[in-house]
What we know:
Layout: H1 2-25, H2 30-35, E1 48-51, E2 63-66, E3 71-76, E4 80-85, E5 88-89, E6 97-106, H3 114-122, E7 142-146, E8 152-154, E9 165-167, E10 171-172, H4 175-184, E11 190-194
Parallel strand pairs: 2-11, 5-9, 8-10
Antiparallel strand pairs: 1-4, 2-3, 3-4, 6-7, 6-11, 7-8
Amino acid sequence: MWRVLLMVMLVVVAPVGAMATARESGCTSLFGCLFGAGSRTTGVRPRETIAYPDAAKYQPGAIVVSTPERRLYFVLPGGKAISYPVGVGKQGFAWSGTSKVVRKAKWPSWSPPREMIARANANGRFLPNELDGGPNNPLGARALYIGGTLYRIHGTNEDESIGHAVSSGCIRMRNADVIDLYKRVEIGAPVYVFQ
């Protein structure tokens, strides 16, 4: 009898609990939620809290992106930072500058710029004018909008792009990482992107 009860718990209760938090955690399948599958990045250092040598240059709460390192640093008090792996702009789309976070969105919709739609059409691909938020949306689970630019720091449904220069200028993060960052960042937080 106890074996039957255990099987019911594993088959019914565990999946219900896992799927209840799936949308928030960024996992997109029952298997991924239960067993941590779905991260297709290999050889990329995971999120970690570090002693950050440049911390004195920035106020706590600032975001610093090092394009060559493919890392985003969220500056903490006491000379520390949370270091996240990121995907950055591909050749011809990389950029640098200083701005601030002007908006935050959960499961944002995506409206690709006209230039991106034209590039896709020229390559025989179709991009919609707008795509509702959700697991199939390229912006992933969260987005932080960078003022004065078309760029965002956002999640991705393409984990394999993390650690590479593949985007059209936006900073990509694993969904679990962008959810973590989203909770920490305030509107108005400074953003520094370096080449």
